[in-house]
Amino acid sequence: MVMAPETPLRHPRRATEESPAVKWTLIAIALLFLGLVLFLPLVAVFVEAFRSGAAAYIAAITEHDALAAMRLTLTVAAIAVPLNLVFGLAAAWAIAKFEFRGKTLLITLIDLPFSISPVIAGLVFILLFGSQGYLQPLTQAAGIQVVFALPGIVLATVFVTLPFVARELIPLMQEQGTGEEEAAISLGANGWKTFFLVTLPNVKWALLYGVLLCNARAMGEFGAVAVISGKIRGETNTMPLHVEILYNEYAFSAAFAVATLLAGLALVTLVLKTILEWRFSGHLNGRGGH
Known about the structure:
Low-confidence stretches: none
Number of strands: 0
Radius of gyration: 25 Å
Oligomer: single chain
Order of helices and strands: HHHHHHHHHHHHH
Mean pLDDT: 86
Helix content: over 70%
Structural class: mainly alpha
Number of helices: 13
Strand content: under 5%
């Protein structure tokens, strides 16, 4: 009896394995899209900023109203980011380490700023603290002006940046579980010692990552701040608002000059984010992506 020749075994192709032509076509499409949507506008900002020369550029970013906008932007970020750091850390710790009624509702509320237009958020604060607002009698009795002032800008910024720190920490802390904390408590550590010596070191890089994103959004926020600030030049204008005003006044070179500062902040954030992801990817694996 003559046996039929054996058919060579074919290795099944993996679901993610594609031919080189398909792979490079997809990469080319992605790079082309990023070039048109991200890289080209960024280059255009710097080209337009220096179109009138370096002297005009320096004059634009050192002008009184521009300096006031920078100071206000930095002040708002310096207040809003620490507040979100404390809230995000506390909320993530409670959600990841404890079981309680209303936990799902708390997670939903943390995500709320992602689903609401910043302009709507600004209008809500006007409704609450404006001259006819529900809480206006209380703020007036306390002598605090919220709308068209620093407190309102901080409130709007805290609202739109609220999810960034918490959303970086919650998946990571849930993935880590409660084993190490339970071991520490069983050895006699109290709650604060367990938090500072066990919990916090395990999430420090994800926490830094969230703070970085939160700070970038806080300094670049436009919609909510535009509504509640009143856009008072030299007083309640942040850098994005100052750029818009200059552009509407046809001061294009000055507008793009100030915009380069925000673009520079975005580039620094991108570099630091990349370094964190590359250097500490193992510590960030459990985080939600942005």
